[in-house]
Amino acid sequence: MILRNYKKEDSPIIATWIRNEEELYKWSSDRINKFPLKENDIEENYEPQFLAGRFFPLTAVGEEGNVIGHFIIRYPREDDDSSVRFGFVIVAPEFRGKGYGSKMLRLGVMYVKENLGAKRIDLGVFENNEGAKHCYEAVGFREYSIRECELPIGNWKCIDMEMFI
Asked: From 11's CA, which of 25, 65, 89, 163 has a CA 20 to 30 Å away?
């Protein structure tokens, strides 16, 4: 597996991985409030963030050149380069539960070390997304807070996790 910069052509592929409304909210929180996703919905969501220059979407590609995972890295605060946040973490359904997510995120941690220089990475995961939480723990993320999130499909607990590099 390698990481490469996200391409516009990845949007329709990733959109097919979101199979129901619950998966949409587990993946995007309330950032993209429409299901089903259309081919360019992800690209359209990302476009304004590219302009800020503090947004780095990455795609995981398998040995055969197929797109198998995706996530973003962003600086959550304009005035702070010491911390980045991972988000929109997803692996193609046929690769879930097989270690691909952990491998992808370990490559992401290396990307941060080599290219961004941040010393801290954080992310959020909903309490009802146990597989993702286990994946993040396997990479080295640890819980530091829990908060209540109001989503269009109900209130969910979000666990904030972090790691220092």
From this structure: 163
